[in-house]
Amino acid sequence: MTIRVLDPRLFAEGEPIRMAPPLRKLDGAVIGLLDNAKIGTARFYDHVADMLTSRFGVREVIRRRKPDSSRPVSPEILGELSAADAIVSGIGD
Question: Which of 71, 70, 49 is nearest to 60 (CA)?
Fold first, then answer.
């Protein structure tokens, strides 16, 4: 009997993805909050949205919710969030 070992590693293709530069300030910014539909996320984002506006001067918070946590975000929701200067996408239970 022969044992076959597979190597799951892949060689990187193309250019590495770079993170967007950080915002210089939150004052006056528009921030997107993407809710992944887990139980605790909405309440957590309520608190985050309140802090962003009251403490850090964020002008607007755009909140969107995925239909469920296992699906990728729809192009429509991504389009709506594209108006934000930065987006927070997180999980919560």
Answer: 49
What is the pTM for the complete model shown? 0.78
- The average confidence (pLDDT) of the chain is 90
Q: How big is the chain, counted in residues?
A: 93
HSE at residue 60, side-chain half, CA atoms within 13 A, is 7
> What does the pLDDT look like over 67-90, one tens digit per residue?
988 889 999 999 999 999 999 997
Q: Where are the domains of the chain?
A: 30-90
Angle among Cα 22, 87, 83 to the nearest 5 degrees reads: 100
Contact between 81 and 35 (Cβ < 8 Å): no
